[in-house]
Amino acid sequence: MEHAAPQGIYSTQAAVRSYECGADGLMKPETVLHWFQEIAEAHASSLGFGYDFVMSRGLAWVEVRLDAAINRLPRWKETVELRTWTAQETPLLARRNLEIRDALGNSLVTASCLWAVIDVRRRRPVPLNRHIDSFPDTPCEKTVAPVSMDTSGLQPETREWTAERRDTDFNRHINNAAYLVWALEALPESWQEEHELTGMHLHFKKETHAGESMKSLLFLQESATCHHLMQGDELRAEAVLEWKTATSSANI
Protein backbone atom coordinates (compact mmCIF):
# COMPACT_ATOMS: atom_id res chain seq x y z
CA MET A 1 0.00 0.00 0.00
CA GLU A 2 1.32 3.45 -0.90
CA HIS A 3 -0.12 6.91 -0.93
CA ALA A 4 0.64 10.59 -0.55
CA ALA A 5 0.13 11.33 3.13
CA PRO A 6 -0.80 14.78 4.50
CA GLN A 7 1.70 17.63 4.22
CA GLY A 8 3.22 16.16 1.07
CA ILE A 9 4.66 13.10 2.81
CA TYR A 10 4.70 10.03 0.57
CA SER A 11 4.40 6.71 2.41
CA THR A 12 4.30 3.00 1.75
CA GLN A 13 4.28 -0.16 3.85
CA ALA A 14 6.52 -3.17 3.34
CA ALA A 15 7.51 -6.37 5.14
CA VAL A 16 11.16 -7.23 5.66
CA ARG A 17 12.17 -10.28 3.62
CA SER A 18 14.66 -12.95 4.65
CA TYR A 19 17.23 -12.13 1.97
CA GLU A 20 17.28 -8.52 3.17
CA CYS A 21 18.54 -9.60 6.61
CA GLY A 22 21.81 -10.72 8.10
CA ALA A 23 22.54 -13.66 10.38
CA ASP A 24 21.09 -11.71 13.32
CA GLY A 25 17.68 -11.48 11.67
CA LEU A 26 17.93 -7.70 11.28
CA MET A 27 17.75 -5.73 8.06
CA LYS A 28 21.19 -5.26 6.54
CA PRO A 29 22.35 -1.63 6.57
CA GLU A 30 22.73 -1.64 2.79
CA THR A 31 19.10 -2.79 2.48
CA VAL A 32 18.07 0.42 4.22
CA LEU A 33 19.78 2.33 1.41
CA HIS A 34 18.09 0.17 -1.25
CA TRP A 35 14.68 0.78 0.31
CA PHE A 36 15.35 4.51 0.48
CA GLN A 37 16.33 4.55 -3.20
CA GLU A 38 13.11 2.74 -4.15
CA ILE A 39 10.73 5.01 -2.27
CA ALA A 40 12.63 8.09 -3.45
CA GLU A 41 12.10 7.03 -7.06
CA ALA A 42 8.43 6.16 -6.46
CA HIS A 43 7.80 9.55 -4.89
CA ALA A 44 9.69 11.43 -7.60
CA SER A 45 7.69 9.57 -10.27
CA SER A 46 4.42 10.47 -8.56
CA LEU A 47 5.51 14.11 -8.73
CA GLY A 48 6.36 13.84 -12.41
CA PHE A 49 10.17 13.92 -12.29
CA GLY A 50 11.18 10.32 -11.61
CA TYR A 51 13.48 7.95 -13.48
CA ASP A 52 11.50 7.78 -16.73
CA PHE A 53 11.15 11.56 -16.91
CA VAL A 54 14.85 12.35 -16.44
CA MET A 55 16.12 9.50 -18.62
CA SER A 56 13.91 10.63 -21.51
CA ARG A 57 15.85 13.90 -21.38
CA GLY A 58 19.31 12.35 -21.15
CA LEU A 59 19.51 13.01 -17.42
CA ALA A 60 19.82 10.99 -14.22
CA TRP A 61 19.27 11.50 -10.51
CA VAL A 62 22.41 10.89 -8.42
CA GLU A 63 22.76 10.92 -4.65
CA VAL A 64 25.43 13.25 -3.31
CA ARG A 65 25.19 12.75 0.44
CA LEU A 66 23.25 10.69 2.97
CA ASP A 67 23.10 11.11 6.74
CA ALA A 68 21.09 8.57 8.74
CA ALA A 69 20.38 7.88 12.41
CA ILE A 70 19.42 4.36 13.48
CA ASN A 71 17.39 3.65 16.61
CA ARG A 72 17.10 0.01 15.61
CA LEU A 73 17.03 -1.94 12.35
CA PRO A 74 13.78 -3.63 11.29
CA ARG A 75 13.49 -7.37 11.91
CA TRP A 76 12.72 -10.17 9.48
CA LYS A 77 8.96 -10.36 8.73
CA GLU A 78 8.32 -7.02 10.45
CA THR A 79 5.95 -4.75 8.55
CA VAL A 80 7.11 -1.15 8.62
CA GLU A 81 6.12 2.17 7.09
CA LEU A 82 8.48 4.12 4.86
CA ARG A 83 7.94 7.86 4.61
CA THR A 84 9.63 10.48 2.45
CA TRP A 85 9.29 14.12 1.46
CA THR A 86 11.41 16.45 -0.65
CA ALA A 87 12.09 20.07 -1.55
CA GLN A 88 14.62 22.02 -3.56
CA GLU A 89 17.60 23.10 -1.44
CA THR A 90 19.83 24.98 -3.90
CA PRO A 91 19.74 25.57 -7.67
CA LEU A 92 21.59 22.26 -8.13
CA LEU A 93 20.48 20.17 -5.14
CA ALA A 94 17.25 18.69 -3.80
CA ARG A 95 16.94 17.58 -0.18
CA ARG A 96 15.04 14.40 0.57
CA ASN A 97 14.12 13.25 4.06
CA LEU A 98 13.20 9.64 4.77
CA GLU A 99 11.98 7.62 7.73
CA ILE A 100 11.21 4.01 8.62
CA ARG A 101 8.57 3.55 11.34
CA ASP A 102 7.34 0.46 13.14
CA ALA A 103 3.68 -0.56 13.52
CA LEU A 104 3.30 1.70 16.56
CA GLY A 105 4.66 4.73 14.74
CA ASN A 106 8.05 4.66 16.45
CA SER A 107 10.91 5.98 14.34
CA LEU A 108 13.43 3.24 13.56
CA VAL A 109 15.64 4.95 10.98
CA THR A 110 15.73 8.63 10.01
CA ALA A 111 17.70 10.00 7.08
CA SER A 112 18.34 13.22 5.23
CA CYS A 113 20.05 13.23 1.85
CA LEU A 114 20.96 15.46 -1.07
CA TRP A 115 20.36 14.62 -4.73
CA ALA A 116 21.44 16.22 -7.99
CA VAL A 117 20.39 15.80 -11.61
CA ILE A 118 23.27 15.17 -14.02
CA ASP A 119 23.60 15.24 -17.78
CA VAL A 120 24.27 11.57 -18.58
CA ARG A 121 26.58 12.33 -21.51
CA ARG A 122 28.59 15.11 -19.86
CA ARG A 123 28.37 13.60 -16.35
CA ARG A 124 27.87 17.10 -14.98
CA PRO A 125 25.06 18.51 -12.77
CA VAL A 126 22.40 20.71 -14.34
CA PRO A 127 20.15 23.30 -12.68
CA LEU A 128 17.02 21.61 -11.37
CA ASN A 129 14.65 24.27 -12.69
CA ARG A 130 15.90 23.74 -16.23
CA HIS A 131 13.79 20.57 -16.47
CA ILE A 132 11.60 20.47 -13.35
CA ASP A 133 8.85 23.08 -13.19
CA SER A 134 8.44 23.09 -9.43
CA PHE A 135 9.14 21.12 -6.27
CA PRO A 136 6.62 20.55 -3.47
CA ASP A 137 6.44 23.39 -0.94
CA THR A 138 6.63 20.81 1.86
CA PRO A 139 9.03 21.92 4.62
CA CYS A 140 12.12 19.73 4.28
CA GLU A 141 14.68 20.85 6.82
CA LYS A 142 17.72 18.69 7.54
CA THR A 143 16.66 15.97 10.01
CA VAL A 144 20.06 14.33 10.59
CA ALA A 145 23.21 16.42 10.91
CA PRO A 146 26.36 15.41 9.00
CA VAL A 147 29.14 13.93 11.12
CA SER A 148 32.86 14.14 10.42
CA MET A 149 35.78 12.40 12.10
CA ASP A 150 39.26 13.77 12.74
CA THR A 151 41.66 11.10 11.47
CA SER A 152 44.88 13.00 12.18
CA GLY A 153 47.33 10.83 14.08
CA LEU A 154 45.42 7.62 13.33
CA GLN A 155 47.05 4.82 11.37
CA PRO A 156 44.67 3.41 8.74
CA GLU A 157 44.07 -0.24 7.97
CA THR A 158 44.10 -0.89 4.22
CA ARG A 159 41.99 -3.29 2.16
CA GLU A 160 42.00 -3.73 -1.63
CA TRP A 161 39.47 -5.23 -4.05
CA THR A 162 38.03 -4.82 -7.56
CA ALA A 163 34.66 -3.16 -8.16
CA GLU A 164 32.28 -5.77 -9.57
CA ARG A 165 29.65 -5.65 -12.33
CA ARG A 166 26.93 -6.90 -9.97
CA ASP A 167 27.06 -3.56 -8.14
CA THR A 168 26.39 -1.51 -11.31
CA ASP A 169 23.00 0.23 -11.46
CA PHE A 170 20.84 1.93 -14.11
CA ASN A 171 23.17 4.92 -14.17
CA ARG A 172 25.98 2.59 -15.34
CA HIS A 173 28.10 3.21 -12.27
CA ILE A 174 28.54 1.46 -8.94
CA ASN A 175 25.40 1.86 -6.82
CA ASN A 176 25.73 3.95 -3.68
CA ALA A 177 24.79 1.05 -1.40
CA ALA A 178 27.94 -0.77 -2.52
CA TYR A 179 30.10 1.89 -0.87
CA LEU A 180 28.46 1.12 2.47
CA VAL A 181 29.06 -2.60 1.93
CA TRP A 182 32.71 -1.89 1.14
CA ALA A 183 33.03 0.16 4.32
CA LEU A 184 31.46 -2.56 6.47
CA GLU A 185 33.54 -5.31 4.86
CA ALA A 186 36.71 -3.49 5.90
CA LEU A 187 35.81 -3.79 9.59
CA PRO A 188 37.15 -6.70 11.65
CA GLU A 189 34.48 -9.31 12.33
CA SER A 190 35.07 -8.92 16.07
CA TRP A 191 34.25 -5.21 15.82
CA GLN A 192 30.92 -5.86 14.16
CA GLU A 193 30.04 -8.55 16.70
CA GLU A 194 30.76 -6.20 19.60
CA HIS A 195 29.08 -3.07 18.20
CA GLU A 196 25.71 -1.92 16.87
CA LEU A 197 25.44 0.61 14.06
CA THR A 198 23.71 3.83 15.13
CA GLY A 199 24.57 6.25 12.35
CA MET A 200 25.61 6.31 8.69
CA HIS A 201 27.11 9.35 7.00
CA LEU A 202 28.14 8.91 3.37
CA HIS A 203 29.53 11.55 1.04
CA PHE A 204 29.75 10.45 -2.58
CA LYS A 205 32.54 12.30 -4.37
CA LYS A 206 32.94 10.70 -7.80
CA GLU A 207 31.59 7.77 -9.80
CA THR A 208 33.15 4.31 -9.74
CA HIS A 209 32.80 1.70 -12.48
CA ALA A 210 33.09 -2.09 -12.58
CA GLY A 211 36.63 -3.35 -13.04
CA GLU A 212 38.33 -0.48 -11.24
CA SER A 213 40.87 -1.36 -8.54
CA MET A 214 39.71 0.01 -5.21
CA LYS A 215 41.10 0.34 -1.71
CA SER A 216 39.74 1.47 1.61
CA LEU A 217 41.55 3.30 4.37
CA LEU A 218 39.88 2.43 7.68
CA PHE A 219 40.32 4.66 10.74
CA LEU A 220 39.00 3.29 14.04
CA GLN A 221 37.87 5.15 17.14
CA GLU A 222 35.89 3.96 20.15
CA SER A 223 32.45 4.93 18.85
CA ALA A 224 33.08 5.84 15.20
CA THR A 225 34.85 4.54 12.14
CA CYS A 226 35.93 6.55 9.12
CA HIS A 227 36.31 4.94 5.72
CA HIS A 228 38.09 6.55 2.76
CA LEU A 229 37.06 4.60 -0.34
CA MET A 230 39.72 5.23 -2.94
CA GLN A 231 40.63 4.53 -6.54
CA GLY A 232 44.38 5.02 -6.55
CA ASP A 233 44.94 8.36 -4.82
CA GLU A 234 41.46 9.65 -5.68
CA LEU A 235 38.78 9.71 -2.98
CA ARG A 236 35.58 8.31 -4.47
CA ALA A 237 33.48 8.32 -1.28
CA GLU A 238 33.85 8.87 2.44
CA ALA A 239 31.81 7.10 5.10
CA VAL A 240 31.65 7.90 8.80
CA LEU A 241 29.81 5.22 10.76
CA GLU A 242 28.65 5.66 14.36
CA TRP A 243 28.50 2.75 16.79
CA LYS A 244 27.49 1.74 20.29
CA THR A 245 28.43 -1.32 22.31
CA ALA A 246 26.23 -4.26 21.34
CA THR A 247 23.68 -5.27 23.96
CA SER A 248 22.28 -8.57 22.72
CA SER A 249 21.81 -10.51 19.51
CA ALA A 250 18.46 -10.47 17.74
CA ASN A 251 16.50 -13.69 17.53
CA ILE A 252 15.29 -14.83 14.14
TrEMBL record:
Keywords: Fatty acid biosynthesis, Fatty acid metabolism, Hydrolase, Lipid biosynthesis, Lipid metabolism, Transit peptide. Residues 157-244 form the Acyl-ACP thioesterase-like C-terminal domain. CDD domains: 4HBT (cd00586). The keyword Cell cycle does not apply. Signal peptide: none annotated. GO terms for molecular function: acyl carrier activity; fatty acyl-[ACP] hydrolase activity. Transmembrane segments: none annotated. Residues 10-129 form the Acyl-ACP thioesterase N-terminal hotdog domain. Belongs to the acyl-ACP thioesterase family. This is Acyl-ACP thioesterase. The lineage of its organism: Bacteria, Pseudomonadati, Verrucomicrobiota, Verrucomicrobiia, Verrucomicrobiales.
